[in-house]
Here is the input.
Amino acid sequence: MQYQNLNKAASFIKIAGYAEKQEFNFKDKLDADRVKKCIVPMAAGLNYSWAAKSVDDQCLKLLQELADEQELINKYKSLLNGDMINTGEKRKVLHHLSRGELGQPVMEDGKNIGDFYKKELERFCNFANEVHNGKYKGSTGKTFTTVIQIGIGGSDLGPRAMYMALENWALAEGKKKLNAKFISNVDPDDASQVIAESKLDESLFILVSKSGTTQETLANELFVKDKLVKAGLDTSKHMVAVTSETSPLARNSAYLDSFYIDDYIGGRFSSTSAVGGCVLSLAFGADVFKEFLKGASEADKLALENDVLKNAALLDALIGVWERNFLDFPYTAVLPYSQALSRFPAHLQQMDMESNGKRVNRNGEPVDYSTGPVIFGEPGTNGQHSFFQLLHQSTEIIPLQFIGFIESQKNDDVTVDGSISQTKLNANLAAQIVAFAKGQDSDDKNKEFPGCRPSSLIYGKKLTPSALGSLLAHFENKVMFQGFIWNLNSFDQEGVQLGKVLTKKVLSGNFGDDALEAYSKILGV
Amino acid sequence: MQYQNLNKAASFIKIAGYAEKQEFNFKDKLDADRVKKCIVPMAAGLNYSWAAKSVDDQCLKLLQELADEQELINKYKSLLNGDMINTGEKRKVLHHLSRGELGQPVMEDGKNIGDFYKKELERFCNFANEVHNGKYKGSTGKTFTTVIQIGIGGSDLGPRAMYMALENWALAEGKKKLNAKFISNVDPDDASQVIAESKLDESLFILVSKSGTTQETLANELFVKDKLVKAGLDTSKHMVAVTSETSPLARNSAYLDSFYIDDYIGGRFSSTSAVGGCVLSLAFGADVFKEFLKGASEADKLALENDVLKNAALLDALIGVWERNFLDFPYTAVLPYSQALSRFPAHLQQMDMESNGKRVNRNGEPVDYSTGPVIFGEPGTNGQHSFFQLLHQSTEIIPLQFIGFIESQKNDDVTVDGSISQTKLNANLAAQIVAFAKGQDSDDKNKEFPGCRPSSLIYGKKLTPSALGSLLAHFENKVMFQGFIWNLNSFDQEGVQLGKVLTKKVLSGNFGDDALEAYSKILGV
Here is the structure.
């Protein structure tokens, strides 16, 4: 299997040549036939629609060539089989294994890692059941009504976004077991507010840190413990840990129990591991979390398809590279028309930007082409009343990723002016796609819309646990494929280290740099 | 006074020439002296630090020339005096007047508009006092404990961000009067969730729509009224309106009272009007809202300074244009190291992108230079564990806007490893600025940080109401000055219209476009 930089690929040269003379105007080509034709089925009943992308048959053919030449599916298989894909940290990359085994059994030191993940899954699912059944209670005998996750980055964004995505669904289905809250920031006002709004005697805390050394998380742990002690509670009865087996938090009597992950699941890909699973099982029940895993696993399986028209993650990745490297768009907006997905863009922002915001290839050699885009977004229709002005009418083109569902989660709706709100929501979504694509001429240039703003749409019947798993895995796999195309290591994050080193210098008082000292001084440090 | 496109300015040509040969390396120049020197005082005790910007004395001199040549201060004065600055909609632009009179009295049809704003301010402040004093109660006699704003875009983002910014401060100061919640999205799951989590008999709703015709807001009004009626409550005792005097919501017996704004205050600039004032006065008391106005008004006054070294909003605007048009950076990240400001970036995203995301000048003629950047951001330290990887190490440079405060709002903190959390927060902030600016060499290119990532820092003692007013007005004025520099009309938003038109077509069933019909069909409309 060959790993090579994108611009070393023969197909790259071909695509660049094509891009130079490409005149495919999807603005004029976007009709009902194209909408019906350009759909790739995804897992759990979702679909990926790329009709409003600036991609014609010839472009698609060239993108397939690129996928084949860069051996994207073989690289994915190699990852599934446990090869050392994280070249920077010399680690396997196994988040797929947290939801199903698609490759060969992954063994290490005689241990089957898939079995380890399965065992932990059963352990935290059982723990959640026992909390729901009342075996575990707070130290004053109160039933737990709230679970509060303490974690930052991947231990926060994914689990929080997934919880918010399913809360209304669970309420409607009678599946909501516990409220979940999250403490992440080292800003003490964050923890203070969450604590002030919670009944501590009914709260169970999940401390999440793979290394067991995350500065923010340890500071917040002690913040919380201080409050628990002051409330006369036994901290060890109110806290579990999610960590690695070698961390100081493991097998520690300070916690009710500990659940384990390992270095082969990166924070931003850990929503399907104990990092997301513990809080989601407690909030919604183990059966709901397993449905979520099923959707993700099904998506992982579809991502093995060689044919870009059968593999939505692969096609999405390739179109993203087409837009990034050949059309030179440096950003992508993620626009879910679903309030439940209001923090999903923030999770994608981490997943994508931390994975592919790199300037060296997997061997540590600088690359001379663009890599991952800036990701941002807010839910629709809110975004329409905010930054859509720029998307429609600025001097720049920003590719768009829409997400929508036919049904709302709660089906609690009213008819106003002849339609329910859910219908209005989706009417807006359809209207925006077409408005961005086709624009509008006008003699008054201030009212003219140039159009040709490309978008894709992921849609399905309803945002259920399995649909959410499918959606999450789609983007995880898209980001993975893009990393392979760009020849990056998408699974380390050396860019976070320098800040940590300098922070330690500030806190130790050995600044070693007079500007650092001056900034610290004006900030009262 | 001359309005001209940016690239017609003589100083533009000079700056472009300078940019081509500019070799100012702030990476090597950033020392304690520069940090101490490059500070511009702002209102309410805040400061604007631009030491880590790629701007030397010569650049600064040229930017001052540009400010003078484009007559930025005169244009601001013209706006304050009530001239028709919103050329697209042929309207005055008067949000400054909602917090103080800095120009001549603005008269229209014999009416003093400043007096009108003042009168409404006193009316909603009195109303808030009367709610707090118990004169108004719910229809079953319950004291109001929660205020719920129904609005979208500018009627949501600014007020919500301001509320979140002051909630912890108010709790610490004993100023918190009512909880505030917000319903914005037409997605029925949004309103349904807020309602499910609220005690309706103790809730007062504020319906905010200037035109009184906003689709989402009217749908949510009826959604809420339906719930109130089902709960046996009198809707007219639980709802006030904030609207224009000519809207269907004005002087309507369906509401307990109505408070007025007019067409001269755009939604995204309306936080200091009744749109923000009603909910903020109810939540925190009228005195707190007036402190907030004072900070904003003081900032507006400072923005009249001609000298860029005495006018932070002007300098910030000019540096932004330097980065956008001469260094070609298409985005800016807003990074408040303050959990209280967690939704402030979302508000700036609207304020900036909806104002200056334009491709025609104030006369409706297409411009041939870049205009407003994409704005995105999350609070630190959270962002460090998310997208900072890309900011530090990607192939692109993204200008950064940091915000920080010496003290936390609640002063509820613990010492861990020798420092409190607030100290850790600011140590991280100082460390990031220097890490971005100076980078780090390494033989391992994967661990190399190129540096030269420019940032500015707004900092102050504590995020109080007046500091928040100062911060908000700073960005409003920055956006205004940038609009003047680019010769745009920053105060209309024609880009939102086409989507509205097509949505109506979908809802009426007269699609007029088969792609629009096909998209509607797959979305179940």
Remarks:
- The first strand of chain B starts at residue 39 and ends at 41.
- The longest helix of chain B spans residues 465-486.
